[in-house]
Amino acid sequence: ATPQGRETWDKFRLRIPVVGGIVNRAQLARFSRTFSLMLKAGVPLNQSLALSAEALENKFLESRLLKMKGEIEAGGSITVTATNTQIFTPLVMQMIAVGEETGRVDELLLEVADFYDREVDYDLKTLTARIEPILLVIVAAMVLVLALGIFLPMWGMLDAIKG
What we know:
single chain; 85% helix
């Protein structure tokens, strides 16, 4: 319930083994699309970054992006400050670097958002195939516990009868 706890929880959500990557790519897609649309609409860079950070609803990413905003306001380039945050994938970093050189950051981030949206859709479709072995082990463990719950008392009674 505390801000520190919320940030820790959001950081943990991004690192969960099976679904963390999907959540991270979905967050990057949302950020890229929001940031791109704001830049295309003519919103200043620092304000676009702050509003995009709030739109993520992830306190860990929001704090990193607000730190990035502060470094940009202090005179740093977008590429260098984005590298310092350590939250972007190499694809996003490359697109930001090319966009900063060509002046088309908004168009390239929109392409990044589309790419990540397609990747997240594919990952969600294949998620059941990845979760299936885990579920199989859980069901096997439940069956084992039930079987032992039935057979252990019967074996105990058999030992008592024998003697």
